C-alpha cells in the first residue's frame, strides 16, 4: 500500500483521468513551486501572477530557475488573462494564488470564464489549519494568507458547485456549471468562524471521500452531500484599506468605480450594483463588473467612474455575454454617455477624459434596449481606465473650469455684439465689448497653457512608468547575476 503524501497535483491528475480532460492551464506564483511537469495532460499551458517577491535565498533561487525555464511574457495579470488566452478554453485550471484579497476574489470570478462547460478550477491553500500562517502580509516560511476567505465567500454563493479537499493545505474544487460569478466580494470572515465550521464554510471533505464521489458518473455528485450555506455570516469590508505585498495601500490613493442597473420595476440602488477598486496612480487599470442572476430585464445602466473627486482617461468599455461574445462596444465618442451628473467630459490630445469634483460623478450608457434586456447571469461590462495622479486631476479640473468660462464668455460676447438678434441682454458699449473680448482672449490663452500642462503631465507619467519598469528589470537582472555568482561559489 502506497504511503505517498497526497498533493495538489494528485487531485488534478485524478480529475484529468476520470473525465478524460485534454487541456490544462496553471496560474501560479512566479517564485512558487509548481508541479507543471507532473500534470498528465496532452495540452498544457502555464502563466504566472505578477507580484513583489519575498527575496530570501530560497525564493530568489526559485526565481532564477523559473526565469531560466519560462519566458517573461508568461507573467500575466489576472485582468489580462482573458486577452492572453483569447479564443481558448481549458478543461481544467489550477490556481495557486498570491493569497491576498481582493486579488484572489477577482481571479475566482475571472478564471471560470476560461473553462469549458463542465470543466474544473482548482484553488490551492483553502484550508489552513494554523491561524499564524493566514496573515494579510506575506511572511517568510509557510504562508497561505487570505485565500481561504475568498474561497469561503465563493462557496457561499456556489454551494453545490464548490468544495475543498482537506489535503495539502486544502485544495478547492469549482465545477463550471451555472456558476454565480456576480456576487459582491466586499465581505470578510474571521479565521475562528471558518475553523469552527469548515464543512459549511469551505465544503470540506477528505481525499478518500473525494475519490469515492469521483467514481460516480455525474460530476455534480461530487457536491451533492454538502451542507447548505445560506446562514453563513460575513461582514462588509473595504479592501481600499487592506495592505499589500508592496506596502500599505492608503485610502487617499484609491477609489471605487461602480456600475448600477435599473429595471422597469426597480430604480438604481446599491443592491443592484457592482463595485471595482481603482488606484489613482496614473496607470492603466482593468475594470470589470459581472452581473449576478437578475430578477427582471435590465432597462438602464449607470456608470460611476469614481466615488471621490478624480480624473480618469477612459480607454475602452465593452459588454460581453456569459460566453465572452461581444454584445456592445463603446466607440470612443462622448455621445455614448447621457444624463451626465456632476461630471465633465473633456477631449484633450485626442483622448476622452472624465473630470469631477463630486463624490458621485455618473452617466448612463447609451446601449440599445434590446441589448440591455438580454443581460443575464455572468454577463460582464469590462473596460480600461487610467485614473490620474493628484497633479493631473488639479490641472484637468482647471481646464474644465476654463472651458466653461470660455463658453460663458463666447455666449455673452455673441449676445452683446451690435446686430446680434435676438438679445437676452442689452447691447454693450464699445469699451465694455472690447473688455469682454480681451477677457475671452486671455481665457483662451490660459486654456491653451492648461492643455499644454496636461500633455506635459501625461508625458511625465509615461516616462515615470517606463523608468520604474526599467528599474525593476535592471534590479531583477542584478539580483539574478549576483545570486548566480553566489551559487556558483557555493558549488
Structural topology:
Elements: H1 8-19, E1 23-29, E2 43-49, H2 57-69, H3 81-84, E3 90-95, H4 103-110, E4 115-124, H5 147-157, E5 162-165, E6 171-175, E7 187-188, H6 191-196, H7 198-202, E8 204-205, H8 207-214, E9 235-236, E10 254-263, E11 273-279, E12 285-290, E13 298-304, E14 310-320, E15 326-329, E16 337-341, E17 344-348, E18 351-356, E19 362-365, H9 369-372, E20 380-387, H10 390-416, H11 430-490
Parallel strand pairs: 1-2, 1-3, 3-4, 5-8
Antiparallel strand pairs: 4-6, 5-6, 7-9, 10-11, 10-13, 12-20, 13-19, 14-15, 14-18, 14-20, 16-19, 17-18
Helix pairs in contact: 2-11, 10-11
Structure description:
Helix 2 packs across helix 11 and helix 10 packs antiparallel against helix 11. The strands form four sheets. A seven-stranded mixed beta sheet has the order 2-1-3-4-6-5-8, sandwiched between helices. Strands 12, 14, 15, 17, 18 and 20 form a six-stranded antiparallel beta sheet that branches. The two termini are 39 Å apart. The protein has three domains: 8-236, Rossmann fold (3-Layer(aba) Sandwich); 253-388, no CATH class; 393-479. It is built from eleven helices and 20 strands. With 491 residues, the protein is an alpha+beta fold.
Amino acid at each position: 500500500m502506497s504511503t505517498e503524501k497526497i498533493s495538489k497535483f494528485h487531485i488534478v491528475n485524478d480529475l484529468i483521468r476520470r473525465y478524460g480532460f485534454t487541456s490544462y492551464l496553471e496560474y501560479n506564483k512566479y517564485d512558487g513551486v509548481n508541479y507543471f511537469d507532473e500534470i498528465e495532460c496532452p495540452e498544457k499551458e502555464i502563466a504566472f501572477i505578477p507580484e513583489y517577491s519575498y527575496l530570501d535565498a530560497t525564493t530568489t533561487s526559485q526565481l532564477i530557475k523559473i526565469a531560466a525555464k519560462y519566458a517573461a511574457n508568461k507573467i500575466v495579470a489576472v485582468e489580462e488573462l482573458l486577452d492572453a488566452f483569447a479564443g481558448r478554453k481549458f478543461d481544467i485550471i489550477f490556481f495557486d494564488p498570491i493569497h491576498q484579497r481582493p486579488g484572489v476574489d477577482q481571479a475566482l470570478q475571472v478564471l471560470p470564464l476560461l473553462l469549458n462547460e463542465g470543466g474544473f478550477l482548482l484553488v490551492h491553500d483553502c484550508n489552513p489549519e494554523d491561524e499564524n500562517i493566514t496573515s494579510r502580509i506575506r511572511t517568510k516560511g509557510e504562508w497561505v494568507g487570505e485565500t481561504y476567505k475568498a474561497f469561503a465567500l465563493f462557496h457561499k454563493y456556489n454551494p453545490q458547485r464548490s468544495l475543498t479537499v482537506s489535503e495539502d493545505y486544502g485544495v478547492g474544487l469549482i465545477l463550471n456549471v451555472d456558476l454565480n460569478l456576480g456576487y459582491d466580494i466586499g465581505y470578510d470572515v474571521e479565521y475562528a468562524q471558518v475553523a469552527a465550521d469548515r464543512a459549511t464554510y469551505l465544503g470540506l471533505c477528505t481525499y478518500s471521500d473525494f475519490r469515492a464521489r469521483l467514481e460516480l458518473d455525474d460530476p455534480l455528485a461530487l457536491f451533492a452531500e454538502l451542507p447548505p450555506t445560506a446562514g453563513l455570516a460575513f461582514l462588509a469590508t473595504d479592501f481600499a484599506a487592506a495592505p499589500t505585498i508592496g506596502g500599505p495601500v492608503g485610502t487617499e490613493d484609491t477609489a471605487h468605480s461602480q456600475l448600477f442597473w435599473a429595471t422597469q420595476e426597480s430604480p438604481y440602488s446599491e443592491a443592484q450594483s457592482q463595485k471595482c477598486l481603482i488606484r489613482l496612480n496614473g496607470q492603466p487599470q482593468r475594470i470589470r463588473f459581472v452581473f449576478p442572476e437578475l430578477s427582471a430585464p435590465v432597462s438602464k445602466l449607470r456608470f460611476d467612474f469614481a466615488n471621490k473627486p478624480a480624473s480618469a482617461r477612459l480607454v475602452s468599455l465593452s459588454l460581453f455575454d456569459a460566453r465572452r461574445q461581444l454584445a456592445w462596444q463603446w466607440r470612443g465618442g462622448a455621445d455614448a454617455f447621457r444624463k451626465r451628473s456632476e461630471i465633465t467630459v473633456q477631449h484633450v490630445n485626442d483622448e476622452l477624459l472624465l473630470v469631477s469634483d463630486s463624490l458621485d460623478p455618473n452617466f448612463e450608457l447609451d446601449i440599445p434596449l434590446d441589448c440591455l434586456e438580454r443581460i443575464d447571469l455572468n454577463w460582464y461590462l469590462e473596460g480600461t481606465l487610467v485614473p490620474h495622479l493628484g497633479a493631473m486631476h488639479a490641472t484637468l479640473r482647471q481646464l474644465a473650469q476654463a472651458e466653461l468660462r470660455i463658453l460663458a464668455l463666447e455666449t455673452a460676447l455673441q449676445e452683446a455684439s451690435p446686430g446680434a438678434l435676438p438679445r437676452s441682454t442689452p447691447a454693450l458699449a464699445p469699451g465694455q465689448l472690447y473688455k469682454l473680448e480681451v477677457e475671452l482672449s486671455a481665457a483662451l490663452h490660459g486654456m491653451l497653457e492648461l492643455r499644454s500642462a496636461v500633455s506635459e503631465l501625461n508625458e511625465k507619467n509615461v516616462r515615470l512608468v517606463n523608468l520604474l519598469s526599467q528599474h525593476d528589470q535592471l534590479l531583477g537582472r542584478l539580483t539574478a547575476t549576483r545570486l548566480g555568482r553566489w551559487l556558483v561559489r557555493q558549488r
